[in-house]
Design goal:
The complex is a heterodimer of chains A (147) and B (283). Chain A has helices spanning 2-12, 26-33, 69-78, 89-94, 125-146, and strands spanning 16-20, 57-61, 64-65, 84-88, 104-106, 116-118. Chain A is α/β, with parallel strands linked by helices. Classes of the chains: A alpha/beta (147), B mainly alpha (283).
């Protein structure tokens, strides 16, 4: 019974940490808009914790470059399992318009495994919330696999 | 004997449930005050259950030890409270718990945890003398440090010690880490030094601290309830009104600095205590 409650709680309380991996801030504004009274993701128990050690979801925006790929990897490694990664926006998915630039590595999935891709330039807050809900589902599946 | 056992069981099992629901209602009302819908009332329980289900990552064993001592200190003080024990004993037991929370933060050489721990220490330093003053004043009215003497007292303490009650609510605000005193760590998303003293705690250890915090909330609200110990309805009214006022203050105030807190809470708290004590003797 306790195990079931923990299973249920995982889906009910996904704390997120938001990492700006060199985005133009368009996706960041839309991500933070999810926390405002209009969208209020705290309804689903989402809290923007700002600390990878407390987080379950890593929301990454922007194209990865050779400088910040280490920071991104480090943040991902600091998160305790089970965890999920949401890549947000065209740059986060593939590098976007910057993908051919000499200093850009590419999308987030070149550095860490990504579970959910939210496309758009920038994506709407509704799409990001949808991404969070999808991430929670992958999360449940991961926990079941591990058990 | 049977009554005592039941009281201990209630303190062990009932207090975290009560504290958790308080935290849930708190988050819901806070959300409504900010024109949001807010999470379900059960949210704090989901959060803690999830934390217990997470992978255990600890920087060193001291942090784990300190978290457990903090929890035990909080639990023991609540048990002593329900057994109507000595106020001074309760005070020292909860002080041990509070100090070990600081030590847990200092166990890791992370700048955020270190700064948070120092700030938490200042917060402890601010409210502990006020709590002692509150207990000593209660003693001067009832003639005993025992909580049972407060229940035996025929008039509500609030009538004789209104200013002392306000001083206790200052301690409550600091203990609940609500604005303007939420700078060692905050329950809200808007943080100042990442998560302050709790930055390096994660997973099950953070869950333990959260449960300890529920116990502490129940203890301080219980102390508030003692000011209307003559009627159970009065106790509930007093707790509800105090907690609601706490939420309004939390949402209306900005986060201040520790210098401001130390100066303001000590000067106003001491002044109010002295006025109340003089009034008590002049009567």
């Amino acid at each position: 019974m306790i195990k079931d409650f923990i299973e249920k709680s995982r889906a009910k309380s996904p704390w997120m940490v938001h990492f700006d991996c060199g985005s133009c801030n368009g996706c960041d504004i839309e991500t933070l808009a999810c926390l405002t009274p209009i969208y209020d993701v705290e309804r689903f128990g989402v809290v923007n914790v700002g600390n990878p050690k407390h987080a379950d979801l890593l929301m990454v925006t922007g194209a990865v470059n050779h400088r910040n790929k280490h920071a991104l990897k480090k943040i991902y490694d600091q998160m305790p399992d089970p965890k999920a990664v949401v890549a947000i926006g065209a740059c986060g998915l593939s590098g976007g318009v910057f993908r051919e630039a000499y200093n850009v590595v590419g999308g987030i999935d070149k550095v860490i495994p990504v579970d959910v891709y939210v496309y758009g330039c920038p994506p709407k807050p509704e799409a990001i919330i949808d991404g969070v809900v999808k991430a929670i589902e992958t999360f449940k599946a991961k926990a079941r696999e591990a058990a | 004997m049977i009554k005592d056992t039941l009281l201990v069981l209630f303190a062990l099992a009932g207090a975290p449930l009560l504290g958790g629901f308080m935290a849930g209602i708190d988050r819901r009302i806070t959300a409504r005050l900010q024109a949001r819908f807010g999470p379900p009332i059960m949210q704090p329980f989901y959060d803690v259950a999830k934390l217990f289900g997470k992978q255990m990552i600890v920087p060193n064993s001291w942090q784990v030890f300190c978290a457990y001592v903090y929890l035990v200190g909080a639990v023991l003080s609540v048990v002593l409270f329900f057994l109507q024990s000595d106020l001074l004993l309760i005070f020292f037991v909860q002080a041990v718990g509070a100090v070990f929370l600081v030590l847990g933060g200092m166990a890791v050489p992370s700048p955020y945890a270190q700064v948070g721990a120092q700030r938490e220490l200042i917060q402890v330093l601010t409210y502990e003398p006020l709590l002692i003053l509150v207990f000593v004043t209660i003693y001067s009215v009832t003639g005993s440090f025992k909580i049972s003497a407060i229940y035996a007292h025929e008039a509500p303490l609030l009538k004789e010690l209104p200013l002392i009650f306000i001083v206790l609510t200052y301690a409550l605000t600091i203990k609940l880490r609500k604005s303007p005193f939420d700078f060692s760590t905050s329950h809200h998303g808007h943080q100042e030094i990442v998560k302050g003293v709790l930055t390096e705690h994660s997973g099950p250890i953070l869950g333990l601290i959260e449960v300890g915090h529920w116990y502490e909330t129940v203890l301080i609200l219980g102390l508030c309830a003692l000011f209307w110990a003559t009627s159970p309805v009065g106790m509930i009214i007093l707790i509800t009104a105090t907690y609601f006022a706490e939420l309004i203050v939390d949402n209306a105030m900005a986060r201040m600095t520790w210098r401001w807190m130390l100066g303001y809470v000590w000067s106003v708290g001491l002044a109010m205590s002295v006025i109340n004590i003089i009034w008590l003797y002049a009567k």
